[in-house]
Design brief:
By secondary structure, the protein is an alpha+beta fold. It contains eight helices and 17 strands. Strand 9 and strand 10 form a beta hairpin.
């Protein structure tokens, strides 16, 4: 991950210098987590830079805002155009994109509605989360002692800043225990997801993933994997998954904007399958990277082209 202090940040309708993109310490979101964000990627393709599944990400952003009674001052189309312009202005062929809608400065009572709804978009260069080795050989993960959000506590389907305090606890424990990532269970003990990515398992050529009732974020990449797996002829089942099924899987992999499609080679130090990337995972991974690089036809229209960058 590398931030460019020479870059531009979109804030409340205008591009500003990186150093000027500041928020007051009394902003409501800083104290109470009243923010909504998205994680999006732009990739360098054969036909120039393109943003992966931008409309779907922006729809989810506004759906999450609705849950938290936040009304951005900009329409979905305006914010979508702002994302494209921010990527273009920074000139990165590939980058990670973070739109954030948050409650700003007014008062610090728990009811956030008197506070303005502000927005910003930042971009930075970020390569594979676990490196080329992780994409090829997989990572070791453990089941976390922290569970995911219980129903009617925090809305798991909203990509809200507050939810990621739970994710941070899960991620820290995994790192301290020597794992690359963790798998969290839901409040009933069924498999949920990773700290910030969705999980898939393969057993006898059938692809399984936890249902949205298992306190998961309805991931955009998760949806892509389901579509690609079915395009490749695999059966996909969205269903509650008991913990013990993790250890019985022939293959396992995470997916998400940051993690992309990353194999899991062991869970709780139990080897999954042969302990390396399995054939189903490899096929889905190849399809995914083929689409984002422009080597495979984008038949689902997932790529939004970015105009040539402005000269600096």
């Amino acid at each position: 991950m590398a931030f460019s202090e020479q870059g531009k940040v979109w804030m409340n309708g205008a591009l500003v210098a990186w150093k000027d993109a500041t928020v007051h310490v009394a902003a409501h979101a800083l104290h109470y987590g009243t923010g909504i964000f998205e994680g999006i990627r732009a990739y360098e393709t054969r036909n120039g830079s393109a943003i992966y599944r931008l409309p779907e990400h922006m729809r989810r952003l506004y759906d999450s805002c609705r849950v938290y009674r936040m009304e951005p001052r900009w329409s979905v189309d305006e914010m979508t155009a702002a994302v494209v312009e921010t990527v273009r202005a920074n000139g990165f062929p590939s980058c990670y994109i973070r739109p954030l809608v948050y409650r700003g400065l007014e008062q610090l009572g728990l009811d956030p509605r008197p506070c303005p709804v502000d927005a910003t978009i930042i971009v930075w260069e970020w390569s594979a989360m676990f490196g080329a080795e992780g994409l090829e050989k997989g990572i070791d993960v453990g089941v976390s002692s922290w569970t995911r959000l219980a129903p009617n506590t925090l809305p798991a389907m909203a990509k809200a800043s507050a939810n990621y305090a739970n994710s941070a606890l899960i991620k820290m424990q995994a790192s301290l225990d020597g794992y690359g990532e963790a798998i969290a269970l839901d409040e009933s003990g069924m498999v949920s997801e990773g700290s910030g990515q969705n999980l898939f398992l393969v057993r006898d050529q059938v692809v399984y993933t936890p249902a949205i009732s298992s306190s998961i974020l309805q991931g955009i990449t998760r949806d892509s994997v389901i579509v690609m797996a079915r395009d490749l002829g695999y059966e996909v089942r969205e269903t509650p998954i008991p913990r013990e099924f993790l250890y019985m899987a022939d293959e396992a992999f995470f997916c998400g904007t940051a993690v992309e499609v990353t194999p899991v080679r062991s869970i709780d130090r139990i080897t999954i399958g042969s302990g390396q990337r399995g054939p189903v995972t490899a096929a889905i991974q190849q399809q995914f990277f083929g689409i984002i690089k422009g080597d495979v036809p984008d038949t689902h229209h997932w790529l939004t082209p970015v105009p040539a960058p402005v000269s600096r």
